[in-house]
Structure formats: C-alpha cells, structure tokens
Amino acid sequence: MRNTAPKDAAELEALETREWLESLDYVLQSGGPARVGRLLRELGDHARRKGVKQPFTANTPYVNSIPATEEPPFPGSREIERRIKSLVRWNALAMVVKANKADDGIGGHISTYASAATLYEVGFNHFFKGKGDNHDGDIIFFQGHAAPGIYARAFVEGRIPADKLENFRRELKAGGGLSSYPHPWLMPEFWEFPTVSMGLGPIMSIYQARFMRYLEDRGLKNRSDSKVWAFLGDGETDEPEALGAITLASREKLDNLIFVINCNLQRLDGPVRGNGQIIQELEAVFRGAGWNVIKVLWGSEWDSLLDKDKDGLLVRRMGEVVDGEYQKYAVESGAYIREHFWGKYPQLAEMVSHLSDEQLKKLTLGGHDPAKVHAAYAAAVKTSGQPTVVLARTIKGYGIGEAGEGKNITHQQKKMNEDELRAFRTRFGIPIADAEVAKAPFYRPSDNSPEVTYMLERRKQLGGFVPRRIPTSEPLNVETLHDCFTEFEKGTEGRKASTTMVFVRMLAKLLKDKELGDLVVPIVPDEARTFGMEAMFRQVGIYAHAGQLYEPVDMDTLLYYKEAKEGQILEEGITEAGSMSSFIAAGTAYATHGINTIPFFIYYSMFGMQRIGDLVWAAGDSRTRGFLLGGTAGRTTLAGEGLQHQDGHSHLLSLAVPNLISYDPAFAYEIAVIIEEGIRRMYVKGDSVFYYITVMNENYEHPPMPGDVREGILKGIYRFKTSQKKNAKARAQLLGSGAILPEVVKAAHLLEEQYGVAADIWSVTSYQELYREGHAAERWNRLHPDQAPRVPYVQQCFKGIAEPIIAASDYVKALPDAIDRWLPRPLVSLGTDGFGRSENRASLRDFFEVDSRFIVLATLDELAREGKLDVAVVKKAIKDLNINTEKPNPALS
C-alpha cells in the first residue's frame, strides 16, 4: 500500500500558505500597505515570543524597489532625450579618443560616463535645479571619472566651445583647456566640488546637506527644497570615507540628500564583488543605517516577464547569480544568457521561449532605462524624514561594444579604432559620414535644432545650467573687527596663558561681534573641553537639528552641555574627516549659498594634516576659506600623550598645500594680527586662501606687542628683541617659533649672563611664508634678468649680519632649513626629528635637544668653530648645563 502522508503534508502546507496569502491580500485591499506592515511586525513579534528564530536580513529581493504599476508617467519626450543623450555620449567619447590620438597617454575615461549617461541625463532634464532667480539651486557632486560626459553636455548646450574640448587634459595649451576631473581651482566658474579622490565626494556631500540645514535652522538661509546629489561608483564605496558618515545623514533626517550609486559591478581591475552581490551588500548597509533605498535593477522589458513569475522563480534566479556571472552575461551572446541564466530552471527557459537570442541580449538594465531612473528620482525627491540612495544597475562601458563594454579592461579604455568608432556612431545614430568618423569629430546640432531647443528649455525651467559655480556673497563689513583684537596687543599683563586659551578668548569675542558674530562657525571633533571651549556651550549652544530632547547630566552646572536647533557650534564627535567636511561646507558657503560663513576648526594638530590630508587638499581645490587651528601642537609641548599624539611635522605637511597659509605663533598679539588679517584677506579682498595656525597648551606670560611688527608677523619673521649687552665677547642671532620661543628667550638670557654673548631674538611665525616669498623673488629675478633683482624678505632682515644664526622650533629641522639659502651664513637648526615620548615637557625638550640649554650649546659651539670663543668654553657649558653627550640621537631612537 502506498504511503500518501508526505503528499498530504505537502498539500496541507500549500493550502495553509495559500490561505495566509489570500488573507494578506484581503488586508492589503481593505487596510492598505501601512496596515499590512503593522500586521507583519506584530506577527513577527508574536513568533519571536513563541521561540521562533528568524534569520536577520536587511535585504529585499533582487528586483526594482518601485513596481511598474507605481511608476509615474515619464514627463518629457523620450525620443528627443534619447537623441540628446546619444549626442552627449558621442562627444564625451570623441573628446577622450581625440586627446589620446593627439597625445598618446594623456589619459581620460570613457566607460564611467558611458555606464552613467542615463543617470545624468534624467537628472539634467527633469531634476537638477540651477541657481535661478527663484531657486537656490541643487548641490551636485559629480562622479569624477564621468567628467567627459559633463563637459560634452555643456558643449551641446553651447556653454563650452569646441576648442576647449580639443584641449581636454591640455590646460596649458593656447586658449586653455579642460581639467581632467572636477577641480574648482582650475575651473572656478564651472566646477563646485572636487570628487575624483574617491570617497571624498560622498562624505563631503553628507556634511554639505547637514550644513544646509544648519544655515536654515540658524536663520542664515531661507528654507528651500534644494537637494544635495552625490554620484559615486559601487567600487568607490570601499573607501572608508564613502560610507563612514552615512549614519549622520539618517540621524539628522537629511531628506535633502540623495546618493546615486552607479552599480556597474566593476572597479578599475575587475569585479567589485565577483563572488557576491554589491547591490545587495549596499542595500543592507544603507537600510541598516536608516536610509531610504531605491533599487533600479531591471529595465521596462523585464516587467512583463516578472508579471509572469507567479511562483517567484525568476526573482529567485535573479538573487542567485553573483556579480562576476552577471558581468559575464554583459559580454556574452543571447544564446549564452539563455543557457546559463534562463536554462538553469526549465520553467524559466519556457518563460522566454518566445524571445530570440538577440531579444534576450537586448533586455535593458534599470540604470539604462529613463523611465525606471525617473521613477526612482521622483520618489527620492519626495522622500521625507530620511536620506535616499538610488542603487542603479548598469554596464560599465555601455555602448562602446567590442572596445570594452562590460570587460575588465574598460576603465582604462581611452582609444578606439575606426571600426569601433563607426559601430558606436551607428548604434547611437550620430550624423557623421564614414569618411569623417575616424577623426572622431565633435558634433553639435544647430541652435534651433529640436535637441538643443529642448535641452535649453528644460534647463531654463529648472533654473539654469549646472554645474556652475557662482560666488554671490558681498565683502564683509569689518568696521568693528579690530576692536575684537586690541586687548591682545597688551599681552597677558603678568598672567600666564596658553596660546589655545588666547585663541578661545578671541573666538568668544568674535562670536559677540555685531557684524561677524552670526557668521562664525566653531567646529570641534569632541575636544572642546580639551581646548577650554566649554563656556561656549552655554554662550552659543551646540547645533542639533532636533534641539535637546533630554536633560543633560550637568544641567545644574554653569557650563552645561547645551544642544539647540539654533546652536552655533558644530560638535562633530570623534571624526576629523567629518569635521573637515563641515569646514569645507562652511568655507565654501560664500560660493554655494552666497553666505560668508567663517569656519574655525580646532583639533589635535597630529590628527589634521597627517590624518585628513586628502580632505585638506580638497579644501584648497574647493577654494575654501576659513581657519584650521592645530591644537595641543608641538612635539614637546603636548606632555604625556606620547608618540601618536605629539605633532612635530604638520607644518611640513601644510607647506605642500599651495593656498594654505601656515603660522606657528608664540604670543597673543601674533595670533590677533594673523586672524584679523586672515578675515580681511579672505572675506573682504576675496582671496582664495585658508589658514593653518598651531596653538599650544603650555602656559606662559605673553608680552605686549613690541612696536609695529605687523608686517614681520604676516611675512613670517620679525626681530622680537635686540640685545642691549655692551662689551660682549661675541654676538648671535636666535630664531624661535611657537612654544619654543620662550626657550629661546631663556637661552638669550643665559648666553648674556653666563657666557658674555649678546643674542638678538627673532620670532619666526611662518617658515612656509618665508620659503614661498623667497622662491617667488628668485623666480621673478630669473625671468627678468635685465631688471633690478628682488630681495627675499628674510634676506633683507639679515642683511649685514655675520654672526651665527641658530633656529629652534618644536617641529622637524627641515622646516627652518627651508630658509637657509637666503641667510648670510649656514643656519644651525634645532628641531624635533623623531618619534615622540610619553614624558613631561622638560624631559621631552631635553630628549629632542630644543630647550634653552641646547640652544646655548649650539650657539657656543658655532662661535667656537669660528674662533670667537675657546673650545674650553663649550666643554664647560656642557658640564654646567648638565648635557649628556652620549645620549641617543632622538631622530633615530
């Protein structure tokens, strides 16, 4: 007798499933999606209480997030937009091909824009808002490698002439050219943000979106529906900066932020996740972080097939295939796809039996379908209360065919032969004759053509062209500025203070200034108490879009932790990268929003140039304005913290950023002069520079300003004190910077009192500025040999001086050595080469040989070598000063 139990059990299970599904359909019909969602959550909670353990998943099936039935009607002309996109594709490709034919190896990228063309064109025609009379405009971070496509569109619009396209990546040719990637420094009227250092665009866009809310919440900007769009690649998300701040966006409910990730499944060398699915991985990451995720995977041709998929087998198959296999389908024939994708299950093979191999090959992916992309963008801009990410599936190198479409080599593809160009021309219907196609000529229809007319009208309706950088801010009124700094010209009048305390006092006064106060943006990465800034918590508050939803634990104290919607301090938490992104947002607001915000970003100096140097470079490229304050600076001044915290080289790193003006001031009046001049230079004159100032945590007395030394402070050096010693045995020039200048003052006293050597004291506020000015003078002289030579400022300062020159700083010796060539004799440099130690200041300065004793020794040694003193004096000094001559070399130990 046959056992029918298994069959009966299977039938029973199927019946139960059907009944549950029918019940769910009824709830959906009667109560709607919201009721279904609540019911499913309640069922899930009930099951967990009964001990049912369900595996966690943050993923949805591998299909489009927006069903075809919910897509809005496409608002434009599909045919004209297709022709426009084809024109842009051709000109982008022609630009790169022509450039490499003219100059082999000049580079450029075809495949990124080829895969993302639809993602951009839908945005340009329907969503990207320009800075028009009635709109603030959207902020768009374009994917760096897609730059040729953005240039090509501007060419078709009539914004960029053909000769500029001819000079793509040849910026120094006559008439100028186009930069390789988005660079506001090089094209300040076109590009707004540099993005090609991968990962920086995403994090900067997040903080730009948050800063837009900050300006609105503080009443500095009217509320608007402007969006921040960030275009990036799926491979780019491996960069820590790309995903490192996404929880900030959801936590702050930044519904003004939209990421568009071009998921062509390939990075430079091969698949992003050959053995996995990058789209599903990113969906889980973003959904887990609280983002609205919209997947755009399959084009419209797939809709009818999915409608037939009643048992979910097609959706199951879509989720089984790994990215390496999907990439393979992109380069193989329709027959291969039929066998390997559809052929795994007989039911699926039957589903597409009516389609030819060619039709299977032409089934479009979602990122290449304007209707699907438009539906995703339309949903994204309407999303409220959370940021949105659009995950768009594309093929890298789409349209370039055998030249590299979908292949691992496609990222590096820069050339195409005549047959490949002809095939591309034919595929996209570009009206170029066979005889001309090998030259890859640019093509732009007439101004009154349907294509140009259509695209210009769309941009007019959307507020103007993008990208476009339009600084509209007016120079600041600084009539009361000097009043904020006059008290510091008097010094500390016998009181001891650190330069950090001095700066915080200045910042507090600026915040109260009637003209500038509201524009000051203090930024700190969770170190406000370290820098003595906690009084500002109460004074101006910490910015929080939600306000303060709790009573802080220190509410009963005077300086409690006060968060407020209108708060002014950006307390970023432990993230220098995030803080620097806020600094860039605030420092470019004069161009992005027409608002002259003045950011002051203070942080542990060791975690600035060294940790986030790439973002500092991006700030320079962006023409950012503002002040970076390297706090707890100096290798020997930060006591106890040790090797990872003690900074002795940030000024060396800052020297490499061309428009970063760096200072290492020692006294209050120096800082006052520098910041006042910085505000005038950036916000009145409009110079595209920003400042780096190191401040220390060592307390000492600050003298009054010794006469009019402003010029010297700003240029980098001035004589702080001239020795009055008469009948001196010898004379020396002592140079000091920052926290080591007091050691130089002590050394000068020792030299005069104990060794009969007169010592003039110089304060060097910026070796970098002296270095730059010196080389600028030499360059001018070289190029103008028939004119009176210019004399570097530092050379003027030491004219006629023959005595030994000793320089001591809390930084590596390479810094003072930078000015050696313009001095009348070789410089003796004392510095802090080597790794730091956990010790007190006295021990650290002994270890690195930069305290007053070693300055005295270096001076006496130099004088003895010149015969001005007997060597016995040097030997006696070593003994008297208790210097260990056999101590390890700090640079190597």
- Rg from alpha-carbon coordinates: 33 Å
* Shape call: elongated
**Main β sheet profile:** 6 strands, parallel
| Strand-pairing-aware structural class | alpha/beta
Count of strand segments: 20
Instruction: Kindly state the percentage of residues in helix.
Output: 40-55%
Question: Low-confidence runs (pLDDT<50, min 5 residues)?
Answer: none
Structure description:
The chain is of the alpha/beta class and 893 residues long. It has a 6-stranded parallel β-sheet with strand order 10-7-11-12-14-13, with helices on both faces. The protein has a 5-stranded parallel β-sheet with strand order 1-2-3-5-4, sandwiched between helices. α2 (78-102) packs antiparallel against α3, α2 (78-102) crosses α4 and α3 (111-126) crosses α16.
Short description:
This protein has 893 residues and is of the alpha/beta class. It contains 34 helices and 20 strands. The strands form five sheets. Strands 10-7-11-12-14-13 form a six-stranded parallel beta sheet, with helices on both faces. The protein has a five-stranded parallel beta sheet with strand order 1-2-3-5-4, with helices on both faces.
